[in-house]
Amino acid sequence: MGGFRVISKLVPARSSCRAFSQAVLLRDHNARPNIRVRNHRSASRPLESSGQTYNAPRQAGGLDTPKEDSEREEASAIRTKRLSQPSISTSAQRQSGGLDAGNVDHQREETSPPQPKRPWTAPRKATRDKTPNDNLFPPDFRSVLRSLNLSSPIPYLTADPSAEAPYAYHEEVTVKVFATSDSGHGVGLGRDNWIILVPTVMEGETVKARVFRDGIGFSFAELVEVIEKSPHRVEAACKYFGRCGGCGFQHVEYEEQLRRKRAMVERVYKPLLEINGGVTVRPAIPSPIQYGYRTKMTPHYEQRRAWMPLTNIGFNERGRKTVLDIDDCPIVTKEIGSAYKRARGRLLGSTNPTNVLGATLMFRHSLVLADAIGRRTPPTQVQPMRNCDSDAPKKLEPLPPPIPWPPASSHPIAVEESRAIVRDSINGLNLSYPAFTFFQTNSSILPAFLTHIRTQLRSAITSYGLTTLIDTYCGAGIFALSCAPDFKRVVGIELDPQSLQAAKKNAADNNIANARFFTGSAERIFNFLDHDSVLPNPDHTAVIMDPPAKGSTPSFMDQLLRFNPKVILYVSCNVASQVRDLEPLLKGPEASSSTQPAPPNYLSQGRGKAHSELYIGGTRVDLVGDSKTTVKPAKLYSIVNIQPFDMFPQTAQLENVVMLVRNDKFACYVT
């Protein structure tokens, strides 16, 4: 694009620039914009209304003459003088011998007087969050609200996005808490039946809270004062409790924490228990250590400008995205707390430009095992995995009692490097894994946790003759290796290569010869188990699944139902996703009405599809037709045990272990 010739207005060198030139000419001189003009020969320079002009080359390529420069400078000076004068009408200027309107382009008829700045005031309404937040309330919360039989409607039930909260930003409100959510929020009714959510309160308490954010039919508020206390309230051990977003139950006595967590599991599992029947949720098993139990800590700090001192290191504030500066955390182990204080002392106030975008620190609790120093592991001969079903179930020895953690012969330390190797010992099983990989964060409860899992599987071995254990999402192999003494063969599947190598090393270090580990996604596990001479019979197989908090995938659950193992043991820290995944195993992938008896000998109807399946003495035989769709009757499951564990004291989270056994009387169609 050619250049511009600037005198008192911009003249485009080419017709294609006309629109741009006209847009520039319509600018408001009072705004004094900083306009950049660019041509093919020079970099962009500011062209301001303060009198500085840019002498761009003419279209013909010649430069402006000194006379033209002088005229342009004079016009610019006049324009600057006019803009700096008090606001008077153009006619008054002419009468007093002022400016001639013809000498200045785009002169305003009247210049507005400068407006005084308005003082800042707090917004009338709190920040609006239009995202539905049903997970903040108990599962049966809507029915609880309807049972109140209030004379006026409740905005939360109507779910009207246009409904305005009756409270201003930071307005204080007094409410009586009539329910508590699974996340630890107290629920109260405010003005106009508006729902108020307050953290760290208990049912039956009367509290004063300060509103800071609105949702659809409800508002978030921060606790100001507890007016009437619950008899189950205790003093929190952390001075940051209520502000830090980490813990939510420090104000609740421990026995009440266990009761509330069991009640939460019962509420979430209620739809499945109505189908299953005859099973109740067992009381939550307590953690031997309620404070100083956590073996992992990941504080972080925010992004900052280069050379600005680092001020806050800690965790996010409750309900906000800002980092709360903390100097101590009472739920982590003593070794991690000391390491964090040393690291915080090095970083706080630092102006080092490294990691100005923010960073997350990592601390892991590790054990130095006395019997592992200088020990050489003898070579282990891996047992072949061929013909799994030819062997009878393994003869079981009496199960030893759990060994308290930490072992008396160990020395605890803290590691700060994410690539460092962490060591632990659970029930005599020595484990090592990279610090950045997944591992349970409460080692004190793991002895009882693993003993329960072994007890459940051993009862299934006795009842159903199980010989093979498949550990999906196996990580460093803690479940597979703990249960290996009870099975003929154990298979572990892990996608992360570092965790897989740790599992193989742990098997060798503990002289476990009947466990093998494979790299692969859990979603494809049942497709490649026929490879490498691994031929498990589902009638003699148990599957352990411990997926991430978001749960498993539909692909994995579909393959699990197709494989149809005799026993499934599901471990999860998210009860909601656990119930979602287990529902098709109890109901089938279709409606529950599609289930039908599966006698020892029958031919599936196929529902009009060319592929069907023949059952002869309980053995499945595919009948292949012309269609690409296969209809397979898969037998459904029944829940036999639900056991919560308080893996995370002082928080609303827990670990839940559910055991299911295949029900050979009913089947569903799996396409």
From TrEMBL:
GO terms for molecular function: tRNA (uracil(54)-C5)-methyltransferase activity, S-adenosyl methionine-dependent. Residues 47-56, 83-96 have a biased composition (Polar residues). Signal peptide: none annotated. Residues 65-76 have a biased composition (Basic and acidic residues). CDD domains: AdoMet_MTases. Keywords: Methyltransferase, S-adenosyl-L-methionine, Transferase. S-adenosyl-L-methionine binds at residues 440, 473, 494, 546. Residues 166-225 form the TRAM domain. SUPFAM superfamilies: Nucleic acid-binding proteins, S-adenosyl-L-methionine-dependent methyltransferases. Pfam families: tRNA_U5-meth_tr (PF05958). Residues 35-139, 587-607 are annotated as: Disordered. The keyword Kinase does not apply. InterPro entries: NA-bd_OB-fold, SAM-dependent_MTases_sf, TRAM_dom, tRNA_(uracil-5-)_MeTrfase, U5_MeTrfase_fam. GO terms for biological process: methylation; tRNA processing. PROSITE patterns: SAM_MT_RNA_M5U (PS51687), SAM_MT_RNA_M5U_2 (PS51622), TRAM (PS50926). The active site is at residue 573. Belongs to the class I-like SAM-binding methyltransferase superfamily. RNA M5U methyltransferase family. This is TRAM domain-containing protein.
